[in-house]
Amino acid sequence: MACGSCSTGKDGQPKGCQNNGTCGTDSCNKLTVFDWLANMTLPNGAEPFNWVEVRFKNGRKHYYKNTEGLTLSIGDIVATQAEYGHDIGMVTLSGELVRVQMKRKKVSEKDPEFLKIYRKASQKDIDIWSDARDLEEPMKVKARQFAINLKLHMKISDIEYQGDASKATFYYTAEERVDFRELIKLFAKEFKTRIEMKQVGFRQEASRLGGIGSCGRELCCSTWLTDFRSVSTSAARYQQLSLNPLKLAGQCGKLKCCLNYELDTYLDAIKDFPKTEIKLYTEKGSAVCQKTDIFKGHMWYAYEGEWMNWHLITKDQAKEIIEQNKQKIKPASLEEYAVELTRDTKSEYENVVGQDSLTRFDSPKHNKKRKSTKAKGDRPQNKAQASSREDKDGTDSKRNKPAANKPKPRNKPNPRKEVMSRNANTNPKTEENKPNKPNPRKRKPQSKKNDSDDAK
């Protein structure tokens, strides 16, 4: 790693700034470029390219000429030329790939007013640079308060100190032109340094600040995207996306840059489809295109006057009907083509398991309990009424079967009744259920001999 907090320590273990994917000192992975020409050797007699790419805070990059012939590699901290004094930055590219990047960004090598690299940064230069970076956050809070007190319609998004702490650049966004002359006087009096105001767009502000997008990843503009192309709502229309500004807008408030990524593929696929403005004329009536599915090659048409009934056909079938209409031939109806399509594609997209369906939770769950179709007033109050109804109708009211053919229920033992009978037998309060145990207080019956003597 390039920054101090992420570099390898004395014990050989990487420190790590623990900022969950974003560098704490803004020096690791922001707008990095892979040098795929680093392992290539130059031909004999060719001199190495003496320009390097230096990156500053939040992705700001410039190209400098190595006039001193310093041996520079990616990650070296260097002191570069500035308008006033010098600036401190980090080398991000060197060698032949810098030539390619300069040609891509239209930077001329023969510019007489080129900037150059002074030296590799010393420890004193790095200390001054780091101390100036620590002052940027409290300064931004005060600057925003000054702008609010002056009632200026602007937002100060970021502050960048020069490497030698001789100048501070204030980046702000505003929808209208702002007169900040009084604001600069307050800044110069409070911060006691040279002030420069620079207006940036909303996309540039998001790229400088960074963040997490709706996709769950870091913003493209703050990680790898270097040029900002204009994005229009037609890109969303070609991809058949809903024109919802809450879903199509990014953190900058503008349309997402990723809408342009797959636009060329969609435009190539749409070329094979017939134009949606063309109507299909049949004997049943004229049909208008309602929707297209670019991935499957399907189109939905509806007859004029029957807008709720859509008919699904393929793009080839639509082309065939258009050719017939050009020859003044009208097919019978669209239902003929729709029936053939459903018969062919039913098994192709059938989901056996049901886990891949996005609408599997839309339908309500069916209640497993069997609902009674009878009204409460028609239900019999007791078994006698039910039996009389069966005798009167001659059928079973539940299943509509003859009552004579209904098998008799078996006399199954009811465990609840058995427990109740046991409890009744063991209840000492009832005289009938008393156990036949001998009572010691009662007189024992005399024997038969005594009975016979008494009779005599």
TrEMBL record:
GO CC aspect terms: cytoplasm
Endpoints of the signal sequence: none
Region (Disordered): 354-456
Domain PSP1 C-terminal: 115-200
Protein name: PSP1 C-terminal domain-containing protein
NCBIfam families attached to this UniProt entry: RicT_YaaT_fam
A Pfam family per the record: PSP1
UniProt organism field: Bizionia myxarmorum
Record field: compositional bias (Basic and acidic residues): 388-399
PANTHER family from the UniProt entry: PROTEIN PSP1
